[in-house]
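lol ok so funny story. i was supposed to be doing the assay writeup but got distracted and ended up predicting the structure for this chain instead. priorities right. anyway since i did it might as well share w the group, maybe its usefull for someone
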Amino acid sequence: MKTIIKFIFCIFFIVPVVFAENNINDKNQDAYDLYKELRCLVCQNQSLLESNAPLALDLRKVVLDKLEEGYTKEDVKTFLVERYGEFILLKPKYSVQNILLWFGPIFFLLIGVFVTFIFLRKQSMNKEEGISLSKEEADNLKKILDNNVP
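and the output, tada:
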């Protein structure tokens, strides 16, 4: 009897979800694509698709409304960027304003490699020079080493 109840539960609650996901028209597909490309302003680093914050739900409705009004995907993006700034885009545009964002990691990596190279080079030069001891220091060192050896 429990097996039958579980089976009925699966049919009535899981199957409609599967059919709902397959029922996507072109506007909904465009909205879905935009949901993946736009950032939730409340939950940082989450797309509108992943977020369940109230603002994300409102933004999803705005996106769908704009698409139903006849806006293209780019028009909707432009509208949202004008309203909320480029922060709303999960992948910001290439521009002079955010050049540091795109090339900063490479720049800092190259600086790190250069500093490491200079540090290792100076360290190897110090080893090659060696430290010369005076005759008195050499005799003291020999006495110390001879006394500690069993």
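The chain has seven helices and no strands. The chain has a mean pLDDT of 81.
back to the writeup now i swear
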